[in-house]
Amino acid sequence: MGEVSHSAPEGRDLLKRQLGLALRRQKLRALLLVVPLLLFVTATFIYPIGGLLTRSAYAPEFSEGMPRTAAALSEWDRTGLPPESAWEALVLDLQDHNRQGTAGKIAATLNVELPGARSLIIKTARLAPRLTPPYRTSLAAAEDGWKNPVAWAAMKTLANSFTDRFYLAAVDHRIDADGSVVAQPSGRQIYVPLFVRTFAIGGLVTLCCLLLGFPVAYWLSVLPMRYSNLLMIMVLLPFWTSLLVRTTAWIVLLQDRGVINSLLVWTGLIHDEGRLRLIFNSTGTVIAMTHILLPFMILPLYSVMKTVPPTYMRAARSLGANQFTAFVRIYLPQTKAGVAAGCLLVFILSLGYYITPALVGGESGTLISNMIAYHIQKSLNWGLAAALSALLLASVLLLYWAYNRLAQVDGLKLG
Amino acid sequence: MTVKKQPAPDRDASHSAADAVVRFINVQKTYDAERLVVRNLNLDIRRGEFLTMLGPSGSGKTTTLMMLAGFEPATHGEILLNGRQINRVPPDKRGIGMVFQNYALFPHMTVAENLAFPLQVRSVGKAEVERRVLDALAMVELSGFGTRRPAQLSGGQQQRVAVARALIFEPEVVLMDEPLGALDKQLREQMQYEIKRLHERLGVTIVYVTHDQSEALTMSDRIAVFNDGVIQQLSTPADLYEQPTSLFVAEFIGENNRLGGKLEHVDSAGKCTVRLDGGQIVSAIAVGNPKPGQAVQLSLRPERVLLNPNRSDTSLSIVEASVDDLIYLGDHIRIRLLVDGQEPFVIKALNDDNGMSARKGDKVAVGWRAENCRALHQSQSDVGHG
Amino acid sequence: MSLPTYAQNWERAWYYAFRAFCILVLLFLVLPILVIIPLSFNAEPYFTFTDGMLRLDPTAFSTRWYLDIFENGMSNPALPAGSWEWLADVWQNGQWIHSAKNSILIATGATILATILGTLAALGLSQPAMPAGRLITALLISPIIVPIIVTSASLVFLLAKVGLANTYFGIILAHALLGAPFVVITVTASMSGFDRSLIRAGQMLGAPSHVIFLKIIMPLILPGVISGALFAFGTSFDEVVAVIFLTDYEQRTIPRQMWAGIREQISPTILAIATILVVLSIALLTVVELLRRRSERLRGVKPS
């Protein structure tokens, strides 16, 4: 030790370098252990999500598939019908597709933007080889659809590879024929109300979980170990039981001829004809999701409450506070971190729920995830699905960031 | 803080029940309806005194404190505070202050908020709260620390805040449950002094629980030694050390040497002769009225035993011994002896100019005066006192 | 928590009301799961207790739905149950047997991958020298936070691009991604409170690093590794969204077939399957709990 303080500056520099080297070696070793999973997560998670997000703002299918048309339409100002150059480009592009038999793909792409345009494209492609210039006349004569500027406007919108139209659609807006952004008519607004419903149901489920979970977590945390361990099994069993099993259980319990309705009829509380609609609506979603997510509320609450020593309450009592004051002023503030963590966790998880709403939600109980699945599997509007995913992902990540901040302050752990 | 200075208790004066601020009458406590944690406790705590409950863990001292605080109900018997039965009064209505083992300072409140808490729940006015918090901080020499959180204080500072918080609402009685257990030795001694000083200044009654005998001896007016749910002895520190009434107390307080024997004869003044198991006759003071022929244990403090005494002094009882081991401790030397072939017997010899001539294996003689040797019942540890 | 003697009447009432409420919530948690068990023995294809079941009439109960688990999809359902030909047919053609084989295969593959990658990462993350540890942990755990639909949707395109769509390997990769965070969490937890001086002690006693890893680190974190692996297995065994998106009918798993069954025509066979899964999860829960306690004992954490 003495040698260090007496050594010349050069010696100290050497020492510093060696220390830095040793530290770097330790860091490197730690990193090397993490790298395999990090690469795996990057390849199967970060990269594909990046790809999905790209799809939400980048759709080159039309400009690549119909290069001439896309170029010609870029000069058109959306007033009236486009000039002859655009008509010619359209016919030439479609002639290519007709030759390669790929017209269906372009038809599908356009159909997403302009419902009904599929047959227009297919028919035109079949006609294209036989059309003669000037195309404006021959094409318009052959297919009435092209006399409508809306079809051209739709193609002009699609011609932009980089686009905000999916995001506009995701918040119930669209680009109309003259290129301005307008809100969908209130009857056709789908996504914003769906987001609102997703957040509302998530909030309601979180609230229910808190109201049911807080007393239970408190009770378990003050019970003697041998009882609380036993009762904890009742919390952990649903936690470990398959999601589908729990959802099935609720279908069995809640359906019209299910256990609960039968019990109510049997006890005479309701008439046989007046069976309650408990499932295939938002009631069913809320009940089943509360049941499924309740352990995620109880477990973090319990682990925080376990760390609050009973002497604080005793101290408060000995200082003159009654049971209620001691609970509100001394106990509650110390469980704040657990409450926040539990609520955030439940809320985050509820935002992404898919299975349960799909099975028990019916019409009024489906959430945004179900809509994303619909656009991926059924409507094949991947750009819109990607934009909806991006919005959902952004909300979740924001909340996850908040959760991590909380966990950092109070040293909580997930799970 | 405005606490009326109360007259310091007179140690030796006899007290009537009327002086007692707290009375335990025939109190019993059991958790499982099988084993009594506290067995038939009768204890009067005098106004203004510093009473320590001392005992090994599981002896019932903390349970007694918790019954007084109101956190544990007494299974049987009465607890009186100022003559009023408080068995069914909740803790917050008892008006007893308490310092907890690990202080129990509320972690989400600042020091000042902690101190203000007992005043706020008593609906004391805002200005008054502020003034008394400042006074309390000054009292424990923490002025300027009001805005800190407990976690930002050192152990000693937290301890002082805990004491100030227990005193700020001017309770008549303050309970302290091993309040210095978490501190290191040096800090503990300093805090012992500070608590003692506060006690003398404020005249508040303090009931203190500890398992550390030296802490009990230095701080207390009276000490109640607990064992097995019973108070073994209740007396001043000096009496406890010099005149233990039971083998348990003699062994628990300070260092003790035991010699087994049979009582031969007792005179009216309590002086007695005892035949050691080895056959030798020695004299001692009989404690607790033993009968001749009964088995007794002689209790001798190491520092009261003389090494190689003057054999012509007839007031001494002298026995032969051999040196088993010597331990050098600087200012004194501990000598382990085999006396009468019995279990180790320790004496302390000052390491002064006279030097220490004994060596391992030497034959030596040890002696004592009868008044320094107490003959205690073998079964004494089971008999309660008070 | 026991009632103090000084409690007033309203405190007494509140205390019992509070307890009753907690017990009701706990029943709310377990009863829905347990109620399926008796219903799966219903002789009738209904989802409620028949009068016969309530009267405990033995003819109202049957194991026909359990038999159906085996026989559904057989090429020759007329074979006598239990015979060799029957067994061979069930093994070859049973719908649920096929799903079970797939589930076990996929879950095993995903668990192995997730456990190896997750354990290594957790070992790295719990080194004090780890740079940006919090950020990396947050990143590695995010697959269980990000909505599964988003993950699945993005994997659809990736797997299609690399030719792994509708393959066992593709779905194993996806499930390993979802399971690895649990391994990271449990192993990190079992490393927390790990006394690093044990490693130094091992070095001082002359052990090379691979011996230290095998003989000192491994035994102490093994309970964490195993419960992480069980979590990963459970996750994969229960997962259905990724299976829906990334696989074909050929790779269908038990949850996938349950999903289809519930959506199309829910039959009591689903309840029989659910009952078997409940029994499995009880077994899994027991093992994980025992491991957790063993780990706490090993690390000297007091069970309080």
Can you offer a commentary on this structure?
The complex is a heterotrimer of chains A (415), B (386) and C (304). The C terminus of chain A is likely disordered. Chain A has a two-stranded antiparallel ribbon with strand order 1-2. The longest helix of chain A has 49 residues. Chain A has 415 residues and is mainly α. Chain A has 20 helices and 2 strands. Chain B contains 8 helices and 20 strands. The two termini of chain B are 36 Å apart. Chain B has a 6-stranded mixed sheet, with helices on both faces. Chain B has 2 domains: 226 residues, Rossmann fold, CATH 3.40.50; 136 residues, OB fold (Dihydrolipoamide Acetyltransferase, E2P). With 304 residues, chain C is an all-alpha fold. Chain C folds into 3 domains: 34 residues; 54 residues, no CATH class; 199 residues, MetI-like fold. In chain C, helix 1 packs across helix 13, helix 3 crosses helix 13 and helix 5 crosses helix 8. The radius of gyration of chain C is 25 Å and the shape is globular. Chain C starts with 8 loop residues before the first helix and ends in a 6-residue tail after the last helix. In chain C, 43% of the residues are buried. The model of chain C has no long low-confidence stretch (mean pLDDT 86). At the A-C interface, helix 2, helix 11, helix 12, helix 13 and helix 15 of A face helix 1, helix 5, helix 6, helix 7 and helix 8 of C.
The helix/strand order of chain C is HHHHHHHHHHHHH
Return residue spans of chain C where pLDDT drops below 50 for at least 5 consecutive residues.
none
- Proportion of residues in extended strands of chain C: under 5%
Largest pleated sheet of chain C: none
First CA to last CA of chain A: what distance?
45 Å
CATH names the topology of the largest domain in chain C as: MetI-like fold
Q: What proportion strand of chain A?
A: under 5%
- What string, H for helix and E for strand, traces the elements of chain A in order? HHHHHHHHHHEEHHHHHHHHHH
Total strands of chain C: the figure is 0
**Most residues in contact: chain pair:** A-C, 87 and 91 residues
Helix proportion of chain A:
over 70%
Q: What does the radius of gyration of chain A come to?
A: 31 Å
The CATH architecture classification of the largest domain in chain C is: Orthogonal Bundle
Per DSSP E runs of 2 or more residues, the count of β-strands of chain A stands at: 2
Q: Describe the biggest sheet of chain A?
A: 2 strands, antiparallel
Please identify the top-level CATH class of the largest domain in chain C: Mainly Alpha
Please state the CA-atom Rg of chain C, rounded to the nearest Å: 25 Å
Q: In terms of quaternary structure, what is this?
A: heterotrimer
Overall spatial form of chain A: flat
